[in-house]
Amino acid sequence: MEFETLKSTILATRTVHNFKEGVPIDPRDIEKALEVSLYAPNHKLTNPWHIFHVSDETRKRLSSLARELAREKGLDDEGQKKAMAKVMAPSALIVYALPINSQNKSQEREDYATLSCSIQLFALALRTLGFSYKWSTGGLSRHAQSYDLLGIDPHDFEIIGFIWVGKSLKEPILTKRPTLNEVVRHI
Length: 187
Ligand SMILES: Cc1cc2nc3c(=O)[nH]c(=O)nc-3n(C[C@H](O)[C@H](O)[C@H](O)COP(=O)(O)O)c2cc1C
What we know:
By secondary structure, the protein is an alpha+beta fold. The chain contains 8 helices and 4 strands, in the order H-H-E-H-H-E-H-E-H-H-E-H.
């Protein structure tokens, strides 16, 4: 692959905050993107992947929880409906859970590194298939009821990301990064 092709894919893989509603995604596209994402580096080959492709039914339940959280925050009816719509609008929701390893925190940290690399590979692969993403660690992803709804035991796993997949409502902004001079030291 040409460097410029890789670079333009990386730069186009931006976080999307507002997704178009009702855009279907072929589940095979999700599978294809997930399959390549498993080729992230994985120290000691621990296979730390616990990935949940969330059904529409479960998403509806999560959207009710999102509404409840919005209500607790004091949002009015319109705000609560928006919170629900945010859960339902994207084409898919993929959840990544990290195995908790209290005996070996350094292993857990390295597993988190693997999952992070994997999520970025997933996002890049989706981009080439015409879809965008958002990695979210907001209140919904951390809520005890979300663990319940997804059947994830919080003693064994930490949800490290809700990955929303879909088409962006508008052109995402290319966020600013530091220049190399600011971050690289030649020693
Ligand atoms: C670990 C992690 C957690 C994130 N959680 C959130 C989140 O909860 N809400 C959100 O709006 N964006 C979240 N993001 C997306 C970042 O805010 C995003 O990368 C940043 O806005 C820069 O945008 P860009 O990815 O388009 O360059 C998260 C990203 C990472 C890596």
